[in-house]
Amino acid sequence: MTDNFITINGTKIGPAFKPYIIAELSANHNGSIEKALKSIEVAAQCGVDAIKIQSYTPDTMTIDCDKEDFQVKGGLWDGYKLYDLYQWAQTPFEWHKQLFDKAKDVGVTLFSTPFDETAVELLEELNTPAYKLASFEITDLPLIKRIAQTGKPLIISTGMANLEEITEAINTAKENGCKELVVLHCISAYPAPVEQTNLATIADISKRFNVISGLSDHTLGTVVSVTSIALGACLIEKHFILDRNDKGPDSEFSLEPDDLARLVKETKAAHQAIGVAGYERKPIEEASMKFRRSLYFIKDIKQDEIITKEHISRIRPGFGLAPKYYQQLLGKKVNKDIPRGTATSWELIDND
């Protein structure tokens, strides 16, 4: 990474730019291409930068086998056979062109997570602008190598991976031609518990590996995503569904449209709020200066009279001399008659 940003479809992603928000469609179309197309349209209206799909078939993920190894136990997908789960959740290859065309029509970026080389070839034919590597595939170095060889930007999720595995994945990507890389902190639990998110890892990823970092967020709601911006996340990925009542493989931890629109708005505001360290007075504060305390004459005083504690006080508003000059003014002589309620100034004090 020669610059502190990468570019996807003309949009710069990095610390100096507003957070890049990806709506992960995943399996939330529930097998309906009409719902998938509508999801792209609505996500674009919510203001996201990109929509992501997943590219696999049940046969590229696993085999149709009833053995215990292939049964899901516990969690959202308890009781499913792996093959049946992927049969349900897949975004069929034959949908892909229509989905890419729809995204182009509504003016939003669309790319995908490939789960094997056949999916990479499909996505290359569709001229995908970027790739995402799923957490579960971070140890599939041959797949990372093939993706990196396309020269496209690559986003890697690190869920479940230890430091050695993350290092191997990043090195494989860089050694095979990947020049634009984002690495996402991720907890691969669905939903992920807030108390285990460890968002401090985001900044460590960026520093340790010299990459742009972000968050793939599987927690409920938007609090964790918004918080991550303050800790250096430049990119947020969040699952999206039109209506959680539709149910589906990922519905329980997905945002609905109102939540997604709020995420876009609040992460942008969080980024704006960070700014840079500094102690100069901000322009917006100038109007409040008059409400500071300052030194005022609170009793009429005649020319050549000596100022005592009865004459001045530290009160609001702030048009007089600063309170720090209180002791310095005591004992001074005034050079004219001064009525009660006059702001102190050096012009009213005898030069002697």
Catalogue the unreliable spans. none
Molecular shape: elongated
Classify the beta-strand content into a percent band.
Answer: 15-25%
Q: Mind telling me the C-alpha Rg?
A: 30 Å
- Which CATH architecture of the largest domain? Alpha-Beta Barrel
Structural class category: alpha/beta
The helix tally amounts to: 11
CATH class of the largest domain: Alpha Beta
Query: What is the chain-wise order of helices and strands?
Result: EEEHEHHHEHEHEHEHEHEHEEH
CATH homologous superfamily name of the largest domain? Aldolase class I
Whole-number total of structural domains: 2
User: Separation of termini?
Assistant: 67 Å
Mean pLDDT: 96
Helix content: 25-40%
Main β-sheet, in a few words? 8 strands, parallel
CATH topology of the largest domain: TIM Barrel
Largest sheet, spatial ordering of strands: 5-4-3-10-9-8-7-6
Number of strands: 12
Explain what the structure shows:
- The strands form 3 sheets. Strands 5-4-3-10-9-8-7-6 form an 8-stranded parallel β-sheet. A two-stranded antiparallel ribbon has the order 1-2.
- It has 2 domains: 11-57 and 92-274, Aldolase class I (TIM Barrel); 283-348, Alpha-Beta Complex (Type Iii Antifreeze Protein Isoform Hplc 12).
- By secondary structure, it is α/β, with parallel strands linked by helices.
- Helices cover 30% and strands 16% of the residues.
- It starts with 5 loop residues before the first strand and ends in a 23-residue tail after the last helix.
What is this structure, in a nutshell?
The chain is an alpha/beta fold and 352 residues long. Helix content is 30%, strand content 16%.
